Amino acid sequence: MKRSTRPAVRRLVTALAAGAMIGATLVGCSSGGGTTSGSDAKTGMAAVDAALKKGGTITYWTWTPAAKAQVAAFEKKYPKVHVKLVNAGTNTTEYTKLQNAIKAGSGAPDVAQIEYGVIPQFALAKSLVDLKTFGFDSLKKDYASGPWGDVTVDGGLWGLPQDSGPMAMFYNKTVFDTYGITVPKTWDEYVAAAKKLHAANPNAYITSDTGDPGQTTSMIWQAGGTPFSVKGTDITINLQDSGTKKYTEMWNPLVEGKLVAPIPGWSDDWYKALGNGTIATLLTGAWMPGVLESSVKDASGDWRVAPMPTYDGTPVNAENGGSSEAVIKQSKNQALAAGFLRWLNDSKQSVSIFVEAGGGFPSTTEALNSSEFLDAAPEYFGGQKINQVLVEGAKNVLPGFSLLPYQLYANSIFGDTVGKSYAANSDLNAGLKSWQKQLVDYGNQQGFTVTGK
Amino acid sequence: MTTLTRSAAPVVVKPGATKRSRRPRRRRSVVLMIMMIVFTVYSVFPLLWLIINATKSQASLFSSFGLWFGDGFDLFSNIAQTFSYDNGIFLHWFGNTLLYVVFGAGGATLLATVAGYGLAKYRFPGRRAVFAVVLGAVAIPGTALAVPTFLMFSSIGLTNTPWAVILPSLISPFGLYLIWVFATDAVPSELLEAARMDGASEFRTFFTISLRLLGPGIVTVLLLTIVATWNNYFLPLIMLSDPTWYPLTVGLGQWSAQASGVGAQPIFNLVITGSLMTIVPIVIAFLFLQRYWQSGLAAGSVKQ
Known about the structure:
The structure holds two protein chains of two kinds. Chain A contains 19 helices and 15 strands. By secondary structure, chain A is α+β, with helices and mostly antiparallel strands. Chain A has two domains: about 190 residues, D-Maltodextrin-Binding Protein, domain 2, CATH 3.40.190.10; about 230 residues, Periplasmic binding protein-like II (D-Maltodextrin-Binding Protein, domain 2), CATH 3.40.190.10. In chain A, strands 2-1-3-13-6 form a five-stranded mixed sheet, sandwiched between helices. In chain A, strands 11-8-12 form a three-stranded antiparallel sheet. In chain A, helix 2 packs across helix 13 and helix 9 crosses helix 10. Chain B is built from 14 helices and no strands. In chain B, helix 4 packs across helix 11, helix 5 packs across helix 8 and helix 8 runs parallel beside helix 14. The two termini of chain B are about 15 Å apart. In chain B, about 35% of the residues are buried. Classes of the chains: A alpha+beta, B mainly alpha. At the A-B interface, helix 1, helix 4, helix 11 and helix 12 of A face helix 3, helix 6 and helix 13 of B.
């Protein structure tokens, strides 16, 4: 009887060994074919071209819906290159996995989608490849200045812009017409419209806001605030600067007066409220039309686009959302990864696939200025040439705004600090102060030199 | 079960009145009744919500009251969509979950049975140390070990493979402990001695005698590990980055998350229908195995 165990043991050992081998091949797969770039003498763009010609396998993490079609088109153009497309999760989920893999030293993709707000975090942690080594700084002319600024941190170029999110005010014209509200041009008019709408229909709100760090920082940006200034590891945080105060002074009455709907963004309730007129405006990035068209079908014909309201009549704008793709330093074939990235975000073919899929608002000047794009008059928006409004808005984005190199952490504690002000319908400044205090403490613990003002 | 209820009752009665027994008992049962009703509602409510809302299309989800049926009955089209969305990735995830359950929970039960039995029925040096380690392991939640396990697996290149989920699932300290306690009582040492006297080898004794006596205990452990592996979320979440290896739990999470941000594609109706279909097999498993489970629990917990 004892003999009968041996084959079992052997089987188990074989199974384990096979498992280890599967693991090994998978790792081999993700680390790509061949050694670094295969360019002994070539540098810059030449090395990238050589790597594309030579071929190999790379892994690309993204949650962009257009990615499948983009990768298929790329592989058709460069048959020797195989791109393993992985949806490793939407934003924060992906970043957590990316950070884990980077910390563990293996398992990270060659190219990954990273939103602009998080680029500084990965760049300063030296997790990304500075694309200047491949001469990609010469691509600057191809992009709008806003998104280009977002991928340029501390003198390095850490990714190529995929889409961009200059803000605009999306408004439900049917609701506005029903209650006789004119499209607000200034924030004073906006607040007045909020009061008028909610008084006329207690179930209707000018917008929804339950406290979202991306939204709040974008609004501060639009008010001219620069609460975070980052120079290397020296950081100054001032969430009470004049721009921030300008924003809270304007926005506080809406929160304190319960004039904004307490509906969390992106929830099923929120989609519902966008469709039935409960939420009358959205202050968000120019990528929103695609989402409205595909997921708020009920409101087709109701929505229009207008420039962001201003504080004093001078048009100013900020950005909200938008992603870039970056080459991860762990990549064993950085030149090939860079080659894929260049095609992905800088070729006309790829960008038009991206725009057609409704994935977002482009960032290349070629796409932004094409007459096809500018003259598009989607029926969903009542035939309005929305891209002209959005492109115009992109020109007014204030330069010089930046986020923290530990923005993911900052976002994660926003609800515990500023969120409390929202929950109590009270002064946002109190919440912002406690957010600042925690950010200063955390930054100093992490080895930054952080001063709070 | 009955022994438990009967022995519990006198303890509650003690402060007050053995004499005026009728009225307090009735009042007490009303309180208990209300508590049970509240608890039943609490448990059934989410399930009811899930079933009702699985019959709605996405548009109807947005336009109808959450706790009652919407305009149309779209359960079947929802199910069809769930299975066909993204080239049938749901079925793929279903297969992965089955894989993890069969090898993870099956393996964990096997290991727990063999080890628990061995510890219960054989005397060898170091037994007490093992006992201490197992007891200690019961106290540590798997979630706390997920990150160290991730770093360990990463350094041997096993992350993002099914092994990363199966191997940690193989260890069930609680299952081992349960079998150990169960085997101590359920398998009389005299019986083993008799078998040895008759010349049966240890393995034959285990497979022909002990394994049958251990039946209820094994089913209990199997059920516990199946549920644990089926519902496992955190471990696969951090171990796997490739959706082709996701189990249902993590896959549904990804579907849910794609409702937000640039290029958002909300599929709330599929998330809900998918969740409903995810719990169906586990409910069936429970219904079939629960009688074994009850007898197993009672046998393990009451000293005869």
